[in-house]
Amino acid sequence: MIPVIALKPVSAGPPNTTLKGIHDAFRRELSLVRQEIADSGPTIGAQLRVNCLTVCQGLHLHHAGEEAGIFPQLVRRFPEVEPAIDRLRVEHEKVAALVDELRAAIASDRTDRPAVLAEVDRLIDELERHLTYEEEQLMPLLG
Hints:
The protein starts with 15 loop residues before the first helix and ends with a helix. The longest helix is centred in the middle third of the chain and has 32 residues, at 46-77. Helices cover 78% and strands 0% of the residues. It is mostly helical.
């Protein structure tokens, strides 16, 4: 016998649970990074730097995917969502700037733990507002 795989078409965008699931994963990972920094000694270790940079890179890739994929699709299908998409794009730039500031804060061998913790908190606060707004605006359209 030859195995047969049935392919089914999917909707134009990810289901609500996928968007929320991805966002919740970022929330969880940043919370873990924050806790690791809070529990660390006076300096930031190499593994913590890697963990932090990995989360930041994943966030960048997620936003780049939204910019190139789902945002244009949603604007084509729902032109009325364009102002919300424009706001989300601006917020992506703000989050990217905060990520750059966090990267700079953890780059030094003499990293100041309280300063890094403050940068993580700034990123978490801004990102939480962004993710919540994005879910409020996009999830009804994706269902």
